[in-house]
Amino acid sequence: MLKDKQVVLGVTGGIAAYKAVELLRLLTKAGANVHVIMTRAAQEFVTPLTFQTLSANPVHTELFNLIAEREIGHIALADRADLGVIAPATANVIGKIAAGIADDMLTTTIMATKAPVVIAPAMNVNMYTNPIYRDNEDKLRRHGYLFVPPVRGALACGWEGDGKLAAPEAVFEAAVAALSRHDYNGQTIMVTAGPTREELDPVRFISNHSSGKMGYALARAAQYRGARVILVSGPVNLTPPSGVELVAVESAGEMHAAVMGRAGECTAIIKAAAVADYRPAERSGAKIKKKGAELSLQLVKTPDILAELGRLAKAPFLVGFAAETGKLSEFATRKLHEKNVDMIVANDVSQSDAGFNVDTNRVRLFFRDGREVDCALMTKDDLANVILDHVASALRLLQNS
Ligand code: CTP
Question: What's the 275 CA to ligand 1 centre distance in angstroms?
């Protein structure tokens, strides 16, 4: 996701400095080359060696270090950076940048870079609400600095309130968003994800193996690319990306109501959910007791949400999924035409590295004009971006990266 991106990670002095270690791990895992700059106060909380070991790069602590100066010069980092992140950012460092003070390696680099900068503040609640701090943050926001607001919680100073550093995952997501193309700015994209559950009684249901990973990857990628995202999700064990509008549903009937109710707001709807095709004709109010050797269940069809969207007079751009165990082309093309959708993402779920419950997928894309595009095995995050590239080009969204 961040392959070969040069990220400058600034760590300032606060108890939350240890969380920057986790953030560094997320950044490097996503492929970024991270250069850590620590202020003097930050080194009181975590040692430079920790960051050096995990980033595999020297940690910068001083403005005029003789070796670093000879090798890169103190402005070179600023020039080389694709992104700057300060986490945790104290009121002090934010105040300095807002006032144009560049008196250490971090403030000098941040002021000298033309790359986007993400700032994740962490401080005492009264400092955070102090009008001087508020002015500084507002000023930096006006100049294009991006903020990941702190969260509410028990603060190290003993107070309770806003001021706790946002979770490393939230800062990471803001970093990826800052580096993404923003071709979906102003668009509303709905993604459905996960399985549905059709209840038989208060303790049993019919469902399927869908993990929701593909749908959540699509929601995350669309959000990074600037879309307002409505994520209609069946029951899954995944954390929704911060900032998406989550509509949690259980059954196909609930998903149907949620999708149809908001379809009019959307530029595109991507139906990655594995919706149950049938539900029990009746839901027993009490637990069904064991009786004879056999039990027959009567099932009735659930509404086909995608097909109903395809019948709308003014349908958004529609992307359907087809999970098949054979005859991929034939079934996918049939679904494309029968459900009247713009694009089908088809995969053979009988392969162990594609489909349910794995992080990778291998799909073929089918379009209305008869085009077929084979996609190699890739992560669901990468595939989400490939799908969004095709949707964007069909919608002729501006590629203003
Ligand atoms: N879908 C839907 N509502 C349903 C069933 C499916 O919206 N009641 C959508 C899925 O979200 C997916 C597409 O239709 O985008 C195809 O789903 P799939 O289960 O592969 O196909 P079905 O139409 O259910 O056909 P079959 O199960 O016979 O393959």
Answer: 6
